[in-house]
Amino acid sequence: MEQQLKSSAINYGIYLGLSLALISVLIYVINAEYAIAWWIGIIMLLLILAFGIVSTAKSKDFLNGFISFKQAFSSFFITVAIGVIINTGIGILIYGVIDTEAAVFLQEKGIENTVSMMERFGAPQSEIDKTIDSMSGENSFSIMNQLKAIAYQLVFYAVIGLIVAAFMKKKNPDLA
């Protein structure tokens, strides 16, 4: 049964990764600026959470409505980790290998957006200048920064996975 749960979570992870990769490629083809749009981030977050929760629910169904905390967390996390890793691999391929100029453009656009937001919130010019210097010296699309981003995302989704697992777990009274 454990193998069936892992296999299901892996399949959902691949579907998630392909969905995220398709969105990323479409964004690149249609208008690369969407890659740094906040609403795209929200859509991706909701898609990731939906796949993780559906994967956990499917695992619970395999177990006749009963699932341990560990099994629920594993189903969620395996799905999300595979999806995020596939999507990051596509991002590295697009912005780190195929079109590095798009990465530079998005970096500059990201700085512009940040400056605009800071000005709207009334940040002092000295803070804006510090932020520009900090962001200019760092390529957020470099392979190393992409790998760091995966690590941070996986920690974030692990916490979410713990919460989902706590809600989804259900002990089998026959085994108690």
From TrEMBL:
<keyword id="KW-0472">Membrane</keyword>
<feature type="transmembrane region" description="Helical">
    <location>
        <begin position="150"/>
        <end position="168"/>
    </location>
</feature>
<keyword id="KW-1133">Transmembrane helix</keyword>
<feature type="transmembrane region" description="Helical">
    <location>
        <begin position="12"/>
        <end position="30"/>
    </location>
</feature>
<dbReference type="InterPro" id="IPR025250">
    <property type="entry name" value="DUF4199"/>
</dbReference>
<protein>
    <submittedName>
        <fullName>DUF4199 domain-containing protein</fullName>
    </submittedName>
</protein>
<dbReference type="Pfam" id="PF13858">
    <property type="entry name" value="DUF4199"/>
</dbReference>
<feature type="transmembrane region" description="Helical">
    <location>
        <begin position="36"/>
        <end position="55"/>
    </location>
</feature>
<feature type="transmembrane region" description="Helical">
    <location>
        <begin position="76"/>
        <end position="98"/>
    </location>
</feature>
<keyword id="KW-0812">Transmembrane</keyword>
